[in-house]
Write a structure and sequence with these properties.
Layout: E1 2-5, H1 16-25, E2 31-34, H2 43-53
Parallel strand pairs: 1-2
Organism: Streptomyces sp. SID7499
Domain Helicase ATP-binding: 1-56
Pfam families: SNF2-rel_dom
Amino acid sequence: MLVVDEAHFVKNPEARRSRAVAGWAEHVERVLFLTGTPMENRVEEFRSLVRQLRPELAPSVSGTHGAA
């Protein structure tokens, strides 16, 4: 199991940190993201976190479903 604290720091898929987490995640059965800030400014930031955990669900995350 991989536990990623402050997971909002891996929202940029091009960043070295994000690539490292993605690489580690390939070698474990479960990944747990912990963050108090899943979305700071845009829905795309949350979508990026979802993409890391469940790529097939990322396209369904949009700014029109339940965003206030």
